[in-house]
Amino acid sequence: MSSGSTPPGERLLEEARRGLVAEHPLADYEFLQGEAPPTVHPALWLQGRLSSVAGLFELAPGFYQLRGFDLSNMHVVEGEEGIVVIDPLITAEAAAAALALYREQRGERPVTGLVYTHSHVDHFGGARGVLDAERAAQVPILAPSGFLHHAVSENVFAGIAMGRRAGYMYGADLPRGPEGQVGAGLGQETSRGTVTLIPPNLEIERTGQSEVVDGVRMSFQLTPGTEAPAEMNIHFPAAKVLCAADNVARSMHNILTLRGALVRDPRIWARYLEQTLELFGEDSEVMFSGHHWPCWGRERIAELLGRQRDLYAYLHDQTLRLLNKGHTGEEIAELIELPPALAAEWDCREFYGSVSHNVKAIYQRYIGWFDGNPARLWQHPPSERARRYVEALGGAEAALERVREAFVAGDYRWAAELADHVVFADPENEAARELQADTLEQLGYGAENATWRNFFLSGARELREGVGGTRMPTAPHDVVANLSVSQLLDAMAIRLDGPRAWDAELRIEWRVSDPDEEHAITVATGVLHHRPGRHDPPAEATLLIDREALNGMLLKTADVAELAASGRLRVDGDGAKLGELLGLLDEPDPGFPIVTP
Ligand SMILES: [Zn+2]
Fold it and tell me: Which of 53, 352, 379, 543 lies 20 to 30 A from 397 at CA?
C-alpha cells in the first residue's frame, strides 16, 4: 500500500466519508494529507487520514455515528421519545461535544437510554456527559453481564503501571506531526477530561435476550472473554443494523495490548465471531464498531466478520502448532506469515495489534515467560547484564562504535539492543542516550503499527528530555465509588510494603456505613488479609467511616482531620494501630522511567 492517491486508498477514503452529515475537523491532524513523508509508514499514514475523517455520520435511518471526538466512536439510535446512546467515549467533555454535534443537526432530543457494549473505559467514561444524575436514575442503562466488576477492577491492581505505559502507547506526550504522533491505529487520540461511570441498571445475561428501549428493539449476543472480559454485540432487527462492539475493527486488534493486560483468548474471539455471523449475518445491512468507520452491505459484512474470525483463529492455531514443534514465542513471531487472502486486506493489517506481539502473547497465555532453555532461566537483571555486555564488548566507546555500524547498516533492531545495554550500564552516558534515541526514532518511522511507533518515539523523547508528565487517567471518583470495599482492601493489600511489615502484627476492623459493611483486617508476616465480618476476639482498633468519606480519603480529595472533626471518621480503641497500618503503605510511582534503569 503506497499512498492515499492510489485507488485502494481512495476507495477506503470514500468508505470512511460515506454517510457524513456534519464534519468535526481535527485541527491537530490537518497535516495528514496526500503522500506519506519518509518519517511515517505509508499504510499508517493512510490509516491516520482515514481515522481523521471525523464528524456525524448517518448509517441508516435513525442510526448515527459520532467519530473523531475520542479514540472510540459514540453511536446514537433515535427512538420514539428521544435517543439511545451507545458507548459514551472516555470523558464527559468528549461525549458532551459529540452529543452537541448530533443535536445541532437532529434537534434537542433527550437521552432515553444508554448502552455500554463492554467494560473498557473508552466505552463508558463519558457517561455523565450525556446523562445528568437525575436523568440517569430514570432511564435504562444496559451493559453485558459482569460489566461493572470488570470496568472498575481493571484499575485496581496494575492500573498505575498500565497508565504510565498507556501514555507511551498512545503517544500522549508526543507532538502531532510527521515526526511525532500520527494516530493510534484504532482512532487518532484519547480525549482528556473527566472519566465518569454511571452503573448499569439492566444487565444482559444471555445471548438471544431481547430488550426494547424507547421503542428500539435490540437483540444481544454476549461475547465474554473476546476483546474484553465483559462484552456484547447488538442487533437491531427492524433496521437490519449490527453493532459489533470492539470485536471487529479495521485493523488487527490486540491479543495483548502493549500498555499491559491479561492476555485475551483469540480462540474464543474467533468462535464468537462465527456465532455473530450465524445469528445476524443474514439480517444485517450495516455494521458499526466501537472504532473506525462502518461496513455497508450484507455480503461485505459477512466477508469482514469472516476475515476477522479467521485472523484470530489463524494466529491462535498456528502459534500453537509451532509451539508444539518446540519453537519459542520470539521465534514464532518471526515464522508466522498471514495467509495472502488475509494479508491483502486492510482490516487485517497491523495498525493496532501486530502479528509479532500477538503471537508472543498467545505463547505467554499458554506457556508463560520461560522458553524452556535453562540458560535463560536465571539471567542477570537488565543493569547487571548491561554492565557485563559492555565490558565484554571492550567498554562503552567500543560498544557504541558497534551501535553506529548497525545503525548505518539499517539493522536498527540490533542497534537498539546494543545501545540499550550501554544506556543501562551507564544512564549518564549522553552519547549512548542520543544514539539510542536516534535508533528508536528510525524504528518508529518504519513501523506500520501505531502503538509501536508511539512506543519507539516516546522512548526517544524520554531519552532526550527525561520522564514526561502526561499519564492516562486512572481511578477517577466514579470508578473508586463503584469498587466494593473488598476490592478497596485488595488494593490496600498490594500497597503494603512487605519488608517493613515483616514484624508488624495488626488486627483492625473497618466498619463502613451507608451502605453498611464490616471487614476484619489482619497484618502479619508482611501480608494484609481481609475478610467480611469481625475479629473474634475483637480487634485492637476499629475504623468507623461512611462510604463517601472513605472514597474521598482514598482519592485524597477529603481531608482526614476534617472528616474526623465532622464525625464522619472515628477510631475506637488503639488509634496508634491504624496509624501504624497507614504508615506501612507504600506509594506507587506513576512516573517511573522506562528507557533508563
Ligand atoms: Zn474500544
Answer: 379
